[in-house]
Amino acid sequence: MDFRNRTVVVCVGGGIAAYKACDLTRLIVKGNGKVRVAMTPAATRFVAPLTFQALSGAPVLTDLFEPAADLTYGHLEMARVADLVVVAPATADLIARIRAGMADDAVTTAVLAATCPVLLAPAMNTRMWRNVATQENLAALRARGMHVVGPAAGLLADGDVGEGRLAEPQEIALAAARLLGRQDLAGRKVLVTAGPTREPIDPVRFVSNPSSGKMGYAVARVAARRGAQVTLVSGPTALEDPSGVEVVRVETAEEMARAVESAQAEMDLFVGAAAVSDYRPAAPAAHKLKKKPGEETLVLARTPDILAGLGARHAGRPGAPVLVGFAAETEEVIARAREKLKGKRCDLVVANKVGAPGAGFGGDTNRVALVSAAELAEIEGTKDKVAEAILDWILPVLDARRPRG
Fold first, then answer.
1. Domain 7-180 belongs to what topology?
2. Catalytic residue among 32, 131, 137, 209, which?
3. Annotated binding residue at 340?
């Protein structure tokens, strides 16, 4: 998540989940953002202000009558420099006071003075969350333009199980990044495939490849950050699910093809970053194959060609989704990418040379060529940066083909 050149004011309410605001602060700082923290008096009884000062590198505002606050109008200064205010946890009491326009502590005053977006992360007991007063208060704040993330359902501090659990810091940080970032894919439905597939030989062996899934996951993550509704169909990887993305886990090429078929009907964009096996064992053994003298022959059968199938179905039709394929080649990279572009009837092929320094399987960086019918562009950098460049190329094509209503 990128918070460069952004200042986020984290307002901490007095609930048991206040400790999670420490992780939220850390995530924003890790994303190169500046954080200022304001705390209600009750919040200071759960987490010491010194903790937030150490994490943010800035003084923490806890009292409107602190000498430093008097000299600088701390609450107003916070509101003035803020690009975003995040209230986490937003307790039932705090939500009610914000709705009433109260300004009786550092948090409510900073929120009332803010002219930037405000993001609320509610946290409270399930019964308090479901109470009509809380729901009416949140509805009123949404009507005023405030944003809400969570709450989640789960085990609460009082032992109850249900709604009211503070959203995880990663989810709150992603929501904050979305509010601060580009939202040029808002309302778009994006389908991404990532990772390898595994084609079983027997119950303990399989045919696969070394794809880590990192490039496809980066595309899904960045598309979600830019406002898209993203479905990620992933082969077996060791990666965590990207926040804000619906993840469908599969093993084989056939399973991936079925998952894509189920999700493709309403898609605006397909990015096929998965390294799908071209062949599978024709007759997987039901039991583990035992070693025998001499040679063995493994008979292979073709797997479904997901990208070619989508191209045959959609290419050339009015309002067709944008189709993007990937090509990992060992030689004649551009020529083979152009062949794939034509043969699969897609709009863009992202090609890279296997084994090139700073590129390929497993790494955090990539060097690729964006190959289309009209142009060729070379991109290198982190996989998130490459994902941004791919989506930047796609955006004008998508807007021209599927104008927003």
1. Rossmann fold (3.40.50)
2. 209
3. yes
Nearest to 42 by CA among 85, 97, 117: 97
Domain ranges of the chain: 7-180, 189-401
305 known ligand binder: yes
**Residue 236 marked in a binding site:** no
In whole angstroms, give the CA distance from residue 224 to residue 181.
11
Class of the 189-401 domain?
alpha beta
Asked if the domains at 7-180 and 189-401 fall in one CATH topology, the answer is yes
The answer for residues whose C-beta is within 8 angstroms of residue 354's C-beta and 6 or more apart is 328, 329, 330, 360, 361
Q: What is the pLDDT of residue 75?
A: 62
Query: Residue 49 annotated as binding?
Result: no
169 is in an annotated binding site: no
Mean pLDDT by 10 residues, the chain (405 residues): 84 94 94 92 94 92 67 65 92 95 91 90 91 94 88 75 87 88 86 96 92 94 89 95 90 97 93 95 91 87 96 91 92 92 96 78 86 90 90 93 82
Alpha-carbon gap, residue 81 to 173, rounded angstroms: 19
The reported pTM is 0.67
Active site residue 209: yes
Q: Taking the C-alpha atoms of 340, 342, 345 and 349 in order, what is their torsion angle to the nearest 10 degrees?
A: 50
